[in-house]
Amino acid sequence: MEILFYRYNSICEPDILQAFQNFGITVHTEELEMQNKQVSPRECAEKVSGWILQKPLAFVFSVNFFPAISYTCERLKVPYVCWSVDSPVPELFSNALKNSYNRIFLFDRAQYDFFSPINPDCIHYLPLATGAKRWENVVLSMTEQDYETFGAEVSFVGSLYTEKCRYDKLSLSDHTRGFVDGLIEAQLKVYGYNFISETLTEEVIREIAEADPDFYQGADTYGEVDRYLVAHQYIGMKLAAVERERTLQRLSERFPVTLYTRSDTSALPKVQCRGGVRTLTEMPKVFQASRINLNMTMRPIETGLSLRIWDILGCGGFLLTNYQAELPEYFEIGKDLETYESMEELEDKIRYYLAHEEERMEIAIRGCEKAARFHTYEIRLAQMIKILTEDM
Asked: What pLDDT digit, counting tens, does each position of 45-57 carry?
C-alpha cells in the first residue's frame, strides 16, 4: 500500500509517519507547506494532484483538514483521510467537508457532534494518542544533570496565548467589552461545559467579526461560521490567555512554579520562566523530571483530550489537568492522573501531591503504563485503518 502524507510540521506528524511505516505502508511525503506557510490552495492542489497522477495511492493523509486536498481527491476519486488535532479548525466550515471521498477523524467528541451531521458517513470520532516509544527513548537516556536541569515542583509547558489573541487587537464598544468580560468570568468558574457559543448575541458576533479585517471570510462556507469562530477563535483564545496567566500568577503566590514558554511573561514576576523547550528532545525531560505537570486545556477543546495530556502521560509524568468530559472514558481519575474543577481544588491537590511523593509516583507510573498499552499511535491508526477498510 502507498499513501501520500501532506505535511505542515505538526508535532505529532513524525509519530504518525513512523506508525504508518511500521504497518508496512509506503509513505510518500509532500513537505511544501513545511517550507512555505503561505502556500495557496491552488499550489496545494497542483502538488497533490501531481502525486495522485504519478502513484497508485490508497489515500492522501494530512493532520487537520485542507479543503484544497479534499476537492482534489474528490475530483480524482482518491480517498482523503485527515485527523484533526486542533480546535477550532475554521477550514471544517468549507463546503469541501461534504465531499464523498473524505474520511475525516475528529479528536473532540463535541467537535465531532457539531460537524458529523454535515457528512455523517464520512466523519468519525478518534481520540489522540502518544508516541510511547519515542518518549521512552528520551526518558531512559536522561542523566542526573537532566533531572537537575529540568526538575521542578510544578511546571507548565505551553503558550500563554497573549501573542495569539486577536481579540485584544480589536476596537470594540464598551458594551461588547463588558459583555465578553462577564462571559469570560462566568466560563472560568465552570469546567467540563462550554456555554460561550450559545450565549453570544447576534450584535456581539457582528461587531467582533466586523472589527477584524482579517476575520475568516471563506467564500466557500456553510453554517454559522461567524458564531463558531467568534466563540472559539476570538473569545476562546482570550479566555485561554486570561485563564493561564491568572492561574499561574495565583499558584506562584503559593508554590514554586516553573513555566516553559515563548510568550511574554512580564506579568508573572513570581513564576520561574525558562523560555521555550524543544518538543521532541527537551519537553519529555520536563514532563519526566517535574513532580507535578500542570495542563490547562483550551476551552475551544470542549470535551476531548488535548495532545498535551497524552504526551505528559506517555513521558511518565504526573499529570494534574482541568477536568474534561472524555477523561473517564480512557483513564481513572485519582489512579492514572489527577484533575481539578476549581482553583481551590487545584491548590489543594498540588499541596497534597507535593507532600505525598510515593502516591504521586504510583499514579504517574500507572498513567504511563495505561497510555503505552492502550493509546499509542499504532493503536489509533489501526483503529483508523479498520474504519477505512469498512468504508471503502
From this structure: 999 999 999 999 9
